[in-house]
Design goal:
single chain, alpha/beta, 2 domains, 8-stranded mixed β-sheet, binds uridine-5'-diphosphate, binds magnesium ion
Length: 333
């Protein structure tokens, strides 16, 4: 069997509570994968953490040559941190996973098996999830809406957790769009795709680092980056309302000419003004969502800025995948 050089990319933002457990679980899984694994690197992308995360990771780095730490210049967000990690990944395949153990590392052997079977994209799909109440309602609403709106098929109920072959990583790194939705982008790229199922657990420690507002923006990025339907729907709504109001106007005119039931009213004009005003504002809002994203694209700012990259030094085993060495160069993308 061909042995694999694997990169694992983990975005980290104030995760000091969970990092020890995460490291322990990943290492024990990777050790158990040894027969199919040639070598591996674990890339932690420190997304501007203000807690002790960096100190903890730096200590790990001293004793473990497999670890790489990418320090971003500030907090750029989940998706940007993942992009930073993937741009530095040197493996023949990379697994992206969250730090909070909601993505169980124990799924890695199954993903490697799928890669060995020839799949280039392995998506970890959620059979169930632990969120309750408003968050669960919003997730369900999002997935039904996104399934309906998306202009082409994207595997639903999946987050960033998954394995990508080198061909997918290279293509993903070429995509420069700013408002990134990785589950959509990786499916858009194509190649042979399969899913592995898992039950999404609670975060192992600490509080969620993405606020509801962040998640809402992420949902909007998904919809507005992967669908023109909102624009078409607002056009359709506008047309429907115009046609109905023209018909209503014609009916009123005829009634007026025939002197039927003509009462100078207040209700009808008020309702129509409010209704049409609301519809126009929704239409403008939808345009604004696209316009804002176009503005982000034309500004051409990098998706992330790297402050520095830390690798263990003085250890012969340090340069895991030395053919593509580019350590310690502050870069942006
Ligand atoms: N994260 C990040 N930058 C941020 C927010 C989150 O790198 O600005 C990381 C975080 O450390 C975690 C992952 O992204 O590893 C997912 O975050 P979280 O668990 O808060 O998201 P949720 O599970 O609620 O979607
Ligand atoms: Mg989480």
């Amino acid at each position: 069997m061909k042995k694999l050089k694997l990169s694992i990319v983990i975005p980290v933002y104030n995760e000091v509570e969970v990092l020890p457990l995460l490291f322990e679980r990943i290492i024990s899984v990777l050790e158990s994968c040894k027969p199919s694994l040639n070598d591996y690197e674990i890339i932690f992308v420190n997304d501007g953490s203000s807690d002790q995360s960096l100190d903890f990771l730096s200590k790990l780095l001293k004793n473990n040559p497999h670890i790489i730490i990418i320090n971003l210049s500030r907090n750029f967000g989940h998706q940007a941190a993942i992009s930073a990690g993937l741009s530095e990944a040197r493996g023949e395949a990379a697994i992206v996973m969250d730090a909070d153990l909601q993505d169980p590392p124990e799924l890695i052997p199954e993903m490697l098996k799928a890669w060995h079977e020839g799949f280039q994209l392995v998506i970890a799909r959620r059979r169930s999830r632990q969120e309750r109440g408003l968050k669960l309602c919003l997730f369900n609403l999002f997935y039904s809406l996104f399934g309906f709106l998306s202009d082409y098929p994207i595997t639903l109920n999946a987050g960033v957790y998954g394995l990508m072959d080198r061909v997918v990583i290279d293509q993903l790194n070429r995509l420069t769009e700013r408002n990134r939705f990785l589950p959509g982008l990786r499916s858009w790229i194509g190649f042979r795709e399969t899913v592995v199922w898992y039950d999404r657990e609670e975060r192992a420690a600490g509080k969620p680092k993405q606020s509801l507002l962040n998640l809402l923006k992420y949902g909007f990025d998904a919809i507005f980056s992967f669908s023109y339907k909102p624009l078409r729907l607002s056009l359709l709504l506008g047309l429907t309302i115009s046609i109905s109001s023209f018909t209503y106007a014609a009916v009123l005119l005829i009634m007026r000419l025939l002197q039927i039931n003509v009462v100078p009213g207040f209700t009808t004009p008020t309702i129509s003004i409010l209704f049409l005003g609301g519809v126009q504002l929704i239409g403008i809002g939808i345009l604004g969502e696209y316009l804002g994203r176009i503005y982000d694209e034309v500004k051409q700012r990098p998706i992330f800025i790297v402050d520095n990259i830390l690798r263990s030094t003085g250890n012969k085993k340090t340069n895991l995948f030395p053919e593509n060495e580019s350590a310690n160069e502050p870069t942006g993308k």
